[in-house]
Amino acid sequence: MSFTPASAFIPFSPPQIGPEEEHELLEALRSGWITTGPRVRAFEAATAAVAGATHGVATFSCTDAMLVALAAFGVGPGDEVITTPYTFISTAQVILHRGARPVFVDVDPRTFNIDPARIEAAITPRTRGIMPVHFAGQVCDMDAILAIARRHGLFVIEDAAHAFGATHNGHPVGTLGDVACFSFYATKNITTAEGGMAVTSDADLAQRMRVLSMYGISDAREIWQKRYTRAGNIHYDVQELGYKCNMTDLCAALGLVQLRRMDAIAAARRSYAAIYDEAFADLPVTTPHVAPYAGHAWHLYPLRLDLDRISLSRDEVILRLKECNVGTSVMFTPLHLFSYFQREMGFNEGDFPVAEDLFSRVVCLPMSPALGEERIRKVAETVAHVVTEGAR
Ligand SMILES: Cc1ncc(COP(=O)(O)O)c(C=O)c1O
Q1: pLDDT single digits (tens) 335-362
Q2: Active site residue 322
Q3: Per the domain annotation, does 7 fall within a domain?
Q4: Where are the N6-(pyridoxal phosphate)lysine residues found in this chain (predicted)?
Q5: pLDDT tops 90 at residue 235
Q6: Within-domain flag for 288
Q7: Best substitution site from 47, 59, 62 to test ligand 1's pocket, by max atoms within 8 Å of Cβ?
Q8: Which of 8, 64, 269, 274 has its CA 20 to 30 A from that of 368?
Q9: Of all residues in the chain, what percent carry a pLDDT higher than 70?
């Protein structure tokens, strides 16, 4: 059968924004309150409820949510926090910004997630906590991770940037570790353009994160909202050295609409993963492994090329796909391969071989419901064409 490329470029991850988002955004703009206010509060409550947590602290980004979570645990110079090299820079950056040291542990070759069997060997008297990253929307092996954390008295802050809506043995991410941090960046399963949230069921921790997300001012959200009204007060106290990373009501307006569409978004992503799984069954590739405990949020579809059965490199496959009008992405360059981490922390190529092997083979395919099933089927056909062409 002859192959025809898509007539127009299929982007990797366009956001799905429609008239409802436009309407709510306009309402927020016209409400007279555009920064952190009632819409943020409503978005926090609704998001925490979906995640099974009692508190949500909305921030400018997931990066900021992780930063205030680490600050709330008092992480600082001399401390170590265990995480994975197979993540986005921000997981390690926030640890470094607290003056602490990220300690990397290699990943499980099937799931791309931190390998619990290797964690205990990385624990030292300086270890304060573990930051597992739920790669692609698939939860880590949290039973094993939480057992290790309990044994050693460590906190668990989950980088759940990819995993809003994901579950572990039926329990939502948000009910597992001490804090889970979500991202609502433009490409994420639900988006507020930029945005993040730390959810927890620990009221004290939530209050600390809330204060830290707004300059360290006591009751900042309440005081600030009343500040220029008749009920306002000119006095406030700064309790902690905080940050300024609050979410705005404009972003929350988008988030509230996206939350209402969450089930449809999740169903579309699941069906796209099934289309890919079926289309690639007989190709020299490995489709994503779903662990028995994982309810996958399918933020990413990380396809692994069986490079010993294909004459093209991963980068050549990506180039061919681009020539055929298919956009892809690669998540992630393992952090220890970046010059900053090598220069400042002494890492070298070869330090985390599983992560490096996965990186050399992975291609993430389009998954956004904004693309629609027809284009996803075209992506599947194009990948099959390119990989078959390159098969040895
Ligand atoms: C695993 C992971 N953690 C954290 C982040 C940071 O999210 P944000 O852009 O909301 O700060 C990302 C962003 O893509 C990510 O992929």
Answers
A1: 999 999 999 999 999 999 999 999 999 9
A2: no
A3: no
A4: 188
A5: no
A6: yes
A7: 62
A8: 64
A9: 99
- C-alpha 237 – ligand 1 centre gap (Å): 32
- Answer whether residue 48 is part of any domain: yes
Contact 196, 62 (CB under 8 A): yes
Pocket test for ligand 1, best of 88, 113, 187 (most atoms within 8 A of CB): 88
User: What are the angstrom distances between the C-alpha of 143 and each of 133, 139, 171?
Assistant: 14, 11, 12
CA distance 84 to 90: 12
The residue from 256, 272, 299 where one domain ends is 256
Output the CA 183–ligand 1 centroid distance in Å.
6
Pocket of ligand 1 (CB under 6 A): 61-63, 87-88, 90-91, 133, 159, 161-162, 183, 185, 196
Domain residues for the domain of 357 are: 262-390
| Domain identity same for 223 and 278 | no
d(CA 20, CA 41): 20
pLDDT at residue 310 tops 70: yes
Q: Which atom of ligand 1 is nearest to the CA of 331?
A: 16
Total count of residues recorded for the chain: 392
Sheet holding 301-305, edge to edge: 285-286, 301-305, 362-365
